[in-house]
Amino acid sequence: MKRTRMVLAAVAAVAMLAACGAGSGSGKDGGDPIVFGGALPLTGWGSDAGQLNNRGYELWVKHVNEDGGILGRQVELKIYDDQSDPTTTARLYERLITQDQVDVLLAPWSDDMTMPATTVAEKYKKPMLTGGATLTDIWSRGYRYVSGLLPSSYDYVGVAVRLLEGKVSTGAVLNNDALYTTGFGDAAVENFEDLGISLTGREAYPGDTQNFAPAIAAVQGGGPELLVGASGGADDAIQIVRAAKIAGLSPQAMYFTIAVVEPDFVESLGADAEYALGTTEWEPSLTELPGFDRFVSDYEEEYGEAPVEDVATSYGLAQVLQASLEKAGELDDEKINDALRSMEMVTVFGTYKVDPETGMQTGKEIYVVQIQDGEREIVWPESDKTADLRFPMPAWSDR
Amino acid sequence: MELTILTAILISGLATGAIYALAAEGLNLIWGVMRVVNLAHGELMMIGVFISYALWSVWGVNPLLAAIPAAAGLFVVGLGIERLFVRRVIGSPELISLLLTFGISIFITNIGVLTLGAEFKTIRFLDEPVSILGTALPLNQLVMAAAAIVLSLAMYVVLQRTRTGTAIRAVAIDRDMAQQVGIDTKKIFGRTFALGAALAGVAGALVTPLVAFNPLIGQTYILTAFAVVVLGGMGNFLGALIAGLLIGVVEAGVAYTVSVQASSGVVFLVIILTLLFRPTGILGARE
User: pTM for the whole thing?
Assistant: First the structure.
């Protein structure tokens, strides 16, 4: 008898706790905060970008709450660490949607993590605006609930290659073998074909490669005039440059994805970083973007350094989501999704406009940058450039 | 095959292999003497990397010199880990020590990420090309490899010629008999683990100028270290040195002739093939 009573008491206690938990989750009346939830690579190979994206989200939450929230309610952030593992990302988004029942989904980072996350979102018909992801496949699966903040890798890489049209006739590609960097590599090859640049060599390398000499040797033989390094971050690009210098591989231009905007690239390489080209979708010199001053000054105050592209990406993404909620007028997934597919706006990150059919970004500006005298200058497009393109890059032995 | 490619494979392969060997020797020692599988060995190497990095960033100490405090620091860390944790599983089946050290490795990795961040760092030291038979190789790689080989041989001499070294070998051959002849096995276990950790620390210090590293770098080296130990014969010190060099050369060979991606599978293949066809290793395990 006593035992049965204890069991009943335990069951009742658990049921009560569960009810409390469910209560706070489902009570969406005026006072409760709107929960924005997502998973980012706070650790693992994507952690550089993951941490920066997280800061962007956190800064946005701070600002939006200072301004009175959305639809009269404060905003709360719920970010999980997916440890740069796509399987974990999928699991976490399932959890965010089914268990945590967050109101709005925030984007993960990189194509690798975004592919499974978008599949989960689509399954539950919960709108997702992707952030740091550019693989065209994301928007060519016929998904209805996925829209993109960033343009596809074809253009992300393309603008840099197109800038060199007529200047180089041969090129080689090295790419990190992660999904997103392989996508960059593929985009480079496609652009080479379109522009009549002959591909003299292509080599993929595992993300944890310690020795880049074999990769450089694999592409050196063709004497490429343009070397494209589809790097995942600064670390592999840095090692590629160093290995190229040792091996005496002196192309006329070197272009790296992502790496060039990371402060580490210039800090570690010093003078060897000169002439390196990169692409970015946000630069600290674009001061006319809305909300720019507040974004930059508050970030600098909090973190003691200037914000970079990844921070602006997540901040801008959250701004677009905010606008979609305001346009929908309520937390209705269908209305929010319709808003995301039809809206046009400019955020601190730049223009947002997607193809209503596929959700792929069509309006975002992309900039080509180059390291000149230790600084990152915009060399294209003409309307935003801060310096002229320096071409060709002198041979290592002449520098 | 062109001479330059062959030279590149041989020399850069031996260079990376020398580091693999040094990284594995500590693991080998611990496994051979204590029958403990130290899955945290990569993390011990990582600590060595960061000691070297810290000394470089703050005082500009070059990694060759930093190897000394790295060795000393890891010796102490090793003594601590052995006394607190490993001691309890000596004598138990290998699986138990594997689980324990796996837990320790996760713990150390996460502390590393929490305190140091997960961003990659690099340092530049002797980053100049040296031309050998038409192939350009980085000077730092050659210097560190030479240091690694010298230290490995020095360790070998310590094991063969010193009292402690002989005692360690005795315990490895027959623990009970060693105790019977008056060797303090408990002390030897402590010193062995500490020496193994110190070797990992030195390997870490030497590798610092060669790669981009973060607190997760231990995970890259542990698999290779295992392959070296398996191929060299568990407990066989010279075997580990030769195995390390061999794996380095085979890996370079595949990277240059097939593809870089294929070369990362070499290590797995080595483990599988050795276990299938010659489980005692190329030189045979210690009896």
Answer: 0.85
